[in-house]
Design goal:
- The protein is an alpha+beta fold.
- β1 and β2 form a beta hairpin.
- The longest helix has 20 residues.
- It starts with a helix and ends in a 5-residue tail after the last helix.
Length: about 140
């Protein structure tokens, strides 16, 4: 029973590990000047509204359209996960290593085997008869 729980827990942990190793994350940050305005994960960061003001100023003066620089900037960090999961060529074990691994696994698996506790040695015995009340006899009372 405990062995099954450990196996289930290990299986869930491995599934979560595979899920997170293949997950790609994009983190978008919006800066207005030197100040961080917004950070978003899996979405677009909210703008501070300065881009619209800069665009209105640039549209009014066409000569300086390409000369003005905006004070805002967007930074996108992309954390890529694995694209494919494949087993690479593993190192072949020699006979001594195989014997050691087999004996270690056999010994370690024996630690978690529980014996059934179905038999109770006091099952057929009844409690002793109370002849006198011991507390009254010795005049010892709980307060």
């Amino acid at each position: 029973m405990i062995h099954n729980r450990i196996l289930q827990l290990f299986s869930v942990a491995m599934a979560v590990l595979v899920l997170f190793s293949t997950l790609s994350i994009s983190i978008e940050k919006h800066y207005c000047g030197e100040h961080l305005v917004d950070v978003a994960i899996f979405a677009e960061a909210e703008k501070c509204g300065m881009e619209a003001a800069d665009m209105n100023l640039e549209a009014s003066d066409e000569d300086s359209l390409f000369m003005k620089k905006t004070c805002c900037k967007d930074v996108i960090d992309l954390v890529e996960g694995q694209d494919e999961l494949s087993l690479e060529k593993t190192k072949e074990l020699n006979s001594h290593q195989k014997v050691f691994l087999f004996s270690f696994a056999y010994t370690f698996s024996g630690l978690f085997e529980l014996e059934p506790q179905d038999h109770s040695p006091f099952e057929h015995y009844s409690p002793p008869n109370v002849v006198e009340d011991i507390q009254v006899l010795h005049e010892v009372f709980l307060i």
